[in-house]
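Hi R.,

Here's the input for the pyridoxal-5'-phosphate complex you asked about:
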Amino acid sequence: MSKDDKATADVHTRLAHGGRDPRAQHGFVNPPVYHGSTVTFPDVETMLSGRQRYHYGRRGTPTTDALTGLLAELDGAAGVVLCPSGLSAISTALLSLASAGDHVLITDSAYGPTRHFADGVMKRMGISVDYYDPTIGAGIAALMRPNTRVVMTEAPGSQTFEMQDVPAVAAAARDHGAFTVMDNTWATPVYFRPLDHGVDVALMAATKYVVGHSDVMMGTVAANDRAWPLLKAFHGDSGLCCGPDDVNLALRGLRTMAVRLARHQESALAVAGWLETRPEVAKVLHPALPSHPGHALWRRDFSGASGLFSFVTREMPLKAVAAMLDGLAYFGLGYSWGGFESLAIVADPRKIRTATTWNEPGHLVRLHVGLEDPDDLIADLASGFDRMNAVREG
Ligand SMILES: *Cc1c(COP(=O)(O)O)cnc(C)c1O
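And here is the predicted structure with pyridoxal-5'-phosphate in place:
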């Protein structure tokens, strides 16, 4: 089998075989972890020529190359950079592309800290920011200004799970000469490859499914040929790098990511379907459910769904929701997601909207369905609803 066959193999095969070369490592299956700042050169001529592959730890090591190489293959990218958190991947993507005087459009359903960064740092730097309805699709063209440089997408939306017509938004941005960025943490390239749909820069909080074990913070940014020179230059100039042991844990996590995602998907759908039958639940926000308003877009563009979704309760006091969540045995109360364990948060999207309004009278509960047995998780939630109802009736 040739190298080219490997690059077109199924994603499970690529995750198992990419980013490593046992013959170059004395036959060991995994690449070694290079701890290093200093790199030495054999002579002055080599040092000054720039020909040596590695010259300083911050600028990359064989360990970081193994991870970025595999990620670039997964996303079909010209290049990938690593950042010390998902949020720093967001700031890196945006600042690589936008400069003082530029205008940036961001989906109203963006991850909260994305909005905070845009409204704070970016505005302070003279970049103007507007938010748009995530369901706008090709209508984004009407919001473009002569100086619109970046359109930021995220699908499904953080907490509220609106789907976006990413190809339509990306096509409108490109017609206008702007770049499209996508936060693809939810689907990962296993279920959606943004660059194949016209997006220029696809980023992930690798903290979530790539690492997969809730023990490392990391972000990744992948770019196509058009955006890669800008991303590479900004990343290098700003001195971002990740520690070798974290990079190694991310590479280790990637090996099993598609298998974990399949299990997250199946269990989350089982839990979501069950929640739809519960009288305490007003709505389940999961794009793979036929009841979801963005279901057709999800079916058209995505090949799967991960383990994160929300539900909205019927109108009730917060203390009834708290009684449910406080006593859960398997769902931890915690931000983040993407690890092997189930998690829950209660959130209020009302506070972080400007282009659209959130009118649900109930409370929004976001669940991450982990790798536990789904029947155990459903039983856990069922006792939670008993506690909720005891407070409502009491
Ligand atoms: C968690 C998250 C991030 C940020 O990742 P960190 O590693 O926590 O900085 C970015 N985008 C989305 C959609 C997230 O859920």
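One thing worth noting: The domain at 3-255 is CATH 3.40.640.10 (Aspartate Aminotransferase; domain 2).

Cheers,
M.
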